[in-house]
Fold this protein.
Amino acid sequence: MYGINCFHHFPDPSRFFDELTRVLVPGGGCVLIEPFHGWVATRFFRRLFDSETFDKTQGPWTSDSGVMEGANQALSYIVFSRDLDRFHQRHPTLEVVEQRPLHNYIRYLLSGGMNFRSLAPAFMSTPLRLFETAISPLSRWLALHHVIVIRKKPRH
């Protein structure tokens, strides 16, 4: 299973995890790419959309708003970082096997990744990728997105 920029729109993440538990075979997984919670991303996403917030302090995981309106782009931080112990308690058959910031932030912005026109010609992709690789140790602060890999625990 794979999802990009969708998790933060789920009004009840626990229902999603219940479905993962139901449909995944033991050892099966789900890959999510979501807004990151680093220094740059926090400032960027707070100002990007009027219809979506970036609130790391949200209490409950659930939202009363609709799926596309009122999404909290910090939801992956809340569930998989701040409340990771709570995630494990509520969903003991699931485990987070990887979380890491992506270091494609410059190409993402220049490609028009936010539904805008591309600002960089295609031939610049390789030099930009090399530059991003060189500065990848700074991804913890600069990244705009991160990948989360969830797996249903294998049976023993």
Q: What stands out?
A: The chain has a mean pLDDT of 90. The radius of gyration is 17 Å. Helices lie at 13-23, 39-48, 75-82, 84-90, 105-110, 125-134, 139-142.
